[in-house]
Amino acid sequence: MTREFDFSFETGDIPELSPQILRESMPDLTDEQTAAFIKYYKMLVLWNRKLNLTRITDPNEVAEKHFADSVLGASLIPEGARVVDVGTGAGFPGIPLKIVRPDIELVMVDSLGKRVKFLTELTLELGIDAAAIHARAEDAARTSGLRGSFDIALSRAVAPMNVLTELTVPFVKVGGASLMYKGSNAREELKESANAMKTLQCRADAVDYDVPWGARTIVRAVKTAPTPAKYPRKAGTAERSPL
Ligand code: SAM
Questions:
Q1: Is the residue at 90 inside a domain?
Q2: Beta-sheet strands, E only, within 157-240
Q3: Are the C-beta atoms of residues 82 and 150 closer than 8 Å to each other?
Q4: Is there an atom of ligand 1 within 6 Å of 98 CB?
């Protein structure tokens, strides 16, 4: 069987991501985790030549802005949690979290088939046990086995918070949380999401991270009651008409 993307012949000219670079922003990495991030970097840069996965490819920047940034939320995820990463793209923040927290069960959802294909190959290459689903969040969150079945939903750089709340909270169990990775405008977005939080039955707080690559905040929306049956509304509606 021929593979649609075979890059095995052209790995020579990828810039080096050294263990030292990785440990500057993630000092506690084991040798095994370091090796996994280096492999991830190589595959990301290679596949990025054919698919649009990321605009960040410099090794220092990938280490900080993709890998270490993704790992920021690790301490907010309970041991053994079932986790869904909504709009995961090239696997952020889900895959870096799974590398440092192999105890979590990870499901990734993205609406772009080629990115999901990349994730399938990536998880095989890294020997990571995680599922990648090609679907819109609005449809996946209505699927039995996915709706209301996760301890944690993750999302980064997917949509404004009032939209994201509707796309992520339906996946979460009562008592679970949606962790939304945001930048310097997190609190403003949170204010604008008051109605979304109320409608989706959430209580939210924000955790700030003082890191060299910028102002980072994770907004945690804890689900206090089941999601009303009408949410999420049909694909595209949350974006067009946010709560
Ligand atoms: N989370 C990744 C990151 O931080 O690098 C990817 C961010 S990228 C800007 C947004 C991703 O969300 C894209 O891969 C896109 O296909 C996906 N996406 C956007 N809306 C979506 C939806 N309604 N359902 C599933 N995926 C969605």
A1: yes
A2: 172-182, 202-211, 214-223
A3: yes
A4: no
Please report whether residue 83 resides in a domain.
yes
pLDDT tens-digit profile, the chain (243 residues): 455 665 554 666 889 999 999 999 999 999 999 999 999 999 999 999 989 999 999 999 999 999 999 999 999 999 999 999 999 999 999 999 999 999 999 999 999 999 999 999 999 999 999 999 999 999 999 999 999 999 999 999 999 999 999 999 999 999 999 999 999 999 999 999 999 999 999 999 999 999 999 999 999 999 999 999 999 999 999 999 999
With CA atoms as reference, report the closest residue to 87 among 66, 65, 108. Answer: 108
CATH of the domain at 171: 3.40.50.150
Q: What is the domain extent for residue 106?
A: 76-240
Cis peptide bond upstream of 93, omega within 30: yes
For the CA atoms of 206, 207, 210, 214, the dihedral, rounded to the nearest 10 degrees, stands at -50
Residue 27 included in any domain: no
In a domain, 17, yes or no: no
Span from the CA of 89 to the centroid of ligand 1 (angstroms): 5
SS3 194: helix
Is residue 112 in contact with ligand 1, taking CB distance under 6 Å?
yes
Determine which residue's CA is closest to atom 11 belonging to ligand 1.
87
What residues contact 129, with CB distance under 8 A and at least 6 apart? 123
Q: How far apart are CA 161 and CA 180, in angstroms?
A: 8
Q: How many domains does the chain have?
A: 1
The model scores a pTM over 0.85: yes
Nearest Cα neighbor of 139 from 32, 34, 233, 43 is 233
